[in-house]
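job 3f2a | input accepted
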Amino acid sequence: MGGLRERLGMIRSRLADAARRAGRLPEEITLVAVSKTVDPGRIREAIQAGQTTFGENRVQEARAKVAEVGAGAVWHLVGHLQHNKAREAARIFQMIHSVDSVELLKDLDRHAGEHNKLLEVLVQVNVAREATKHGAEESQVQAILEAAGSLRSVRVVGLMILPPPPANPEASRPAFRRLKELADRLAGERHENLSLRQLSMGMSDDFEVAVEEGATLVRIGRALFGERSADPGKERG
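job 3f2a | predicted structure (237 res):
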């Protein structure tokens, strides 16, 4: 399978090829290395190989890593965020991918303000309407975007999707396309204090399809760091 540096290079090459197929620039896509269960030493190895953006699923796991890894990393929360973890999440992360309610958005705004920071967030959309998945229904996204207009310390910058595990990469394409269409439609409306320039979609099994459909953030863990122990109910990478 090769070392981490070699795997990172292969992933970046595949990302670039997918971008060019879609008539896009590779620089438009940010690789978020999903580092759940990955120890700080391997994260530092990834930083030395040129990877700077990392995604964590759990606030409590990220807390220690952020302190130990130190400078050189940008941290995103890509897993579900509970309200009682919003204060610490606002302190630790530079971007949160999983906002799914007006209440959570306001909690994050208040806590980011306490830390005198501007926090970027994405609205997670449950496009497939899976009962077992987190995320706002498409019909709820409008209210979340409207609420962002009155906030001072949070900026909504895009949308995120976590589709069902694909039987093959092409199986994810309809969901990715639907999220892009939703973002384009909503971007045409007037909303204060936000943009929808970011689309977080695509993981180890389907990131090339996601790039072809407009992803700007792809969340890749397993293809970079290798297989990990099962973590039921948590996001795959």
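job 3f2a | Residues 4-21 form the longest helix (18 residues).
job 3f2a | closed
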